[in-house]
Amino acid sequence: MTWLLKLYPPRWRQRYGREFHDLIAPQRFSVVTVLDIIGGAIDAWTRPQSHLAAETAAHPEGGTTMLARMMRLRCAGHGEKPTIVDSVKGAGIILGGTLLAVLAATWMRRRGVDSIFSDTLLHSGWLFAFVLSMPYTSLKGWPRLTQAIFMGILLVLVALLTAGGTWISR
Amino acid sequence: MKRREQTIDLEDFGRFAEPALLILISLADAPRHGYAITEDIASFADVRFGPGTLYAAIARLEARGLVKALAAEDRRNPYELTALGEKALRTRLASIQAVARVGQRRLADA
C-alpha cells in the first residue's frame, strides 16, 4: 500500500513521508486502510497545515503542484492582490462574455443547431465568462500554463454539467 | 495591560478532534512515534486509527504547536507534548469530566 503515499502533496511527503511509509509498509492490504489513506491525502491537499506552507515559503524551488500552490496561496493570504483596474477588466469580461454567449446562443437557435448546445451556452454563458475573468482576479500572478490548465478543467466541468442538465431536462 | 493567555480548543479540529485528543493523551506520559501512538491508543481506548487519520491529526497538532517532533530515531520521528499541548489537554479533559459528572448525577437521580 506504500504507493498510496504518492497521493499526498510533495511538501507533506517530505515532512511525514518516511515515517508514514514505515507505518503502512508492514500493514496488510485492507480496503478500510486504503480509504483512510485516500481521505488523508484529500485532507492534506485541501487543508494544508500552516507549518508545511511555511516550509514551502522557505524553499520556493520545491516541486509544488498547482492545487497545493493554490490552496496555500488562498490560506496564507498571499498571491497578487487584484487592483481596481483588474477588477474592472474582470467585470468587463464577465459582462461582455455573458452578452456574447447570449448572442451566440440566439444565433445558434435561428440556425437550427441542436438545442442542447444553444441551451448550454445560454444557461452557463455567465459561468464561462466568470472562469475566463479569473486571470485578473483569483488567478492573478499565477504562471500562464497553470492558469490555462485550471481554467480549462473548470470550463470542461461547467460545460459537461450544464449539457448534462439540459439533456436530462429535455 | 493583562496579556490574554493562548488557548487552543480541540473542537476546532472538526472530525479530527477525537483522534487529536487521544494522541495528546498518548503523549502525556512519554514521547512516542506514529506506530507507538497507534498501539498505545488501541490499548487504552480500544480504537485503532488508520494512518491517514493519524497523520492528519498529527499535522494539525504540530501546526498549532500542541506537539513537536523530536530528533529522528531509526527513521522514525517521536513526538512530544508541548506546554501548550498539555494545557489544551488539561482543559479538554476537565470539560469532559464536567459533562460526565452531570451525566452520572442525572442517571443516579433517574
> How many separate domains of chain B?
1
Spell out the CATH superfamily of chain B. Winged helix-like DNA-binding domain superfamily/Winged helix DNA-binding domain
The quaternary state of the protein chains shown equals heterodimer
Order of helices and strands of chain A, N to C?
A: HHHHHHH
CATH architecture descriptor name of chain B: Orthogonal Bundle
Task: Give, in spatial order, the strands making up the sheet with the most strands of chain B.
Answer: 1-2
Structural class call of chain A reads mainly alpha
Secondary structural class of chain B: mainly alpha
Helical region count of chain B?
A: 4
Q: Give the number of domains of chain A.
A: 2
* Helix content percent band of chain A: over 70%
Instruction: Give the % helix of chain B.
Output: 55-70%
What is the number of strand segments of chain B? 2
Greatest interface by residues involved: A-B, 25 and 19 residues
**Nearest-integer average pLDDT of chain A:** 78
CATH class of chain B: Mainly Alpha
- How far is the first residue's CA from the last residue's CA of chain B? 49 Å
Q: How do the SSEs of chain B run, as a string of H and E? A: HHHEEH
Strand count, sense and closure of the main sheet of chain A?
A: none
| Estimated radius of gyration of chain A | 21 Å
- Spatial shape of chain A: elongated
